[in-house]
Every structure is written in structure tokens, then in C-alpha cells.
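Translate structure to sequence.
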């Protein structure tokens, strides 16, 4: 199904992380040093970092506030903010490389923002479903798939902008 360009453009511009109940309200962030005891993400200087060296350095300190980071909390409670569904016969033949591309994007994303990551990958018959912690990452995965492999991509934003559903499909046309 073709998506009108306006819809796609609209969806692109209107994804906000605001109003995400998993994030502390503005100005009420965590105390100075917190570490997620699940994924080892470190919170300091008002930002999360997923960095082995930083974790090793900070985890030795006293007065650490051990927490579960918002991304791990979402994963545990299975509350994704984005869902990307991959469909079509092209997927079957190129699954490995497509999944590598998506995993690379996840690595890249986590490095810049540990709260923006893939939560879970579900295989359902000939379809693959990717759950993400942010709507933006789901949108990003849709856009890199389109760029790398063409096909059709559709973005469906929930009206409160907290959730996005993305569907990418490419079929191999037999000639
Ligand atoms: Zn975590």
C-alpha cells in the first residue's frame, strides 16, 4: 500500500519523547549518579551512558543509586513505544543482512542514547516484529530499510505521539 507523501512527512515531524511516563518529569531527574543494575547504563551529568569503561569507573564509587533504567523498565513490562513489522517475500531471502542492518542501528542508537533501543525481536511466521523503546527508533528503522532495500514503508503514529507503528514490506516480483 502506498502512503501519501503528506502522511509520511507529517509522521516524521511529530514524534516527541515528551509525555513518556517512563521518563522522569523535566527538572525532576534522578540524583547525580545512578546505575541501572540490569543493563549497566550509567546516569550522570543528567544523561544516560552505555559505556563499559564509565560503568567500571563509576560502579566503584560510593553512594550509587542503583535503579532500573527507563529502557529496561519498558522491556520488563513489555511496553514498547514503537513496533516495526517486516513483511514480504524479499525478507525471507535477505533476512540475515536485513537483521544485521537493524542490529547495527540498535548498537549505534544505544551508544548515543541508551534509552533508545530495540527491546525485543519476535518472529511470527514469515513476518518479523521489532519492538523499540522509542517511537523515533521505530521510525528510523523504517527509513533505513526503505533507503537500503527500497520496498514500501508505512508510518502510523498514535495521536498522542508516544507510539508509532511502522510497517515495511518488499515482495519479490516473479517474472
Ligand atoms: Zn537498563
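Result:
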Amino acid at each position: 500500500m502506498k502512503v501519501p507523501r503528506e502522511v509520511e512527512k507529517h509522521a516524521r515531524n511529530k514524534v516527541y519523547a515528551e509525555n513518556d511516563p517512563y521518563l522522569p518529569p523535566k527538572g525532576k531527574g534522578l540524583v547525580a549518579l545512578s546505575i541501572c543494575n540490569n543493563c549497566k547504563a550509567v546516569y550522570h551529568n543528567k544523561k544516560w551512558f552505555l559505556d563499559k569503561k564509565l560503568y567500571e569507573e563509576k560502579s566503584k564509587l560510593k553512594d550509587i543509586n542503583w535503579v532500573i533504567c527507563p529502557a529496561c523498565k519498558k522491556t520488563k513490562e513489555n511496553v514498547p513505544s514503537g513496533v516495526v513489522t517486516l513483511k514480504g517475500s524479499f525478507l525471507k531471502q535477505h533476512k540475515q543482512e536485513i537483521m544485521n542492518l537493524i542490529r547495527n542501528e540498535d548498537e549505534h542508537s544505544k551508544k548515543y542514547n541508551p534509552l533508545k533501543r530495540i527491546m525485543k525481536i519476535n518472529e511470527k511466521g514469515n513476518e518479523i516484529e521489532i519492538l523499540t523503546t522509542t517511537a523515533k527508533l521505530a521510525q528510523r528503522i523504517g527509513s533505513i530499510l526503505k533507503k537500503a532495500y527500497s520496498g514500501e514503508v508505512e508510518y502510523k503514529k498514535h495521536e498522542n505521539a508516544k507510539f508509532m507503528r511502522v510497517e515495511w514490506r518488499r515482495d519479490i516480483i516473479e517474472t
